[in-house]
Amino acid sequence: ANGAWKLRVQDKASADTGYINSFKLTFP
Q1: What is the pLDDT of residues 2-20, one digit of tens each?
Q2: Rounded to an integer, what distance in angstroms lies between the CA atom of residue 19 and that of residue 13?
Q3: pTM attached to this predicted model
Q4: What residue spans define the domains of the chain?
Q5: Do 25 and 17 contact (CB within 8 A), yes or no?
Q6: What's the rounded Cα separation, in Å, for the pair 18 and 4?
Q7: Could you write out the DSSP letters of every residue in the chain?
Q8: Cβ–Cβ under 8 Å, residues 20 and 9
Q9: What integer pLDDT is reported at residue 7 of this predicted model?
């Protein structure tokens, strides 16, 4: 479910790029 989860995170990145940027560092 990692792939599907990443897709949802990318969608949110559009609304909160800063937050996702930090999140990506924690979950590469």
Answers
A1: 666 666 666 665 555 555 5
A2: 8
A3: 0.18
A4: 1-28
A5: no
A6: 21
A7: -HHHHHHHHHHHHTT-HHHHHHHHHH--
A8: yes
A9: 64
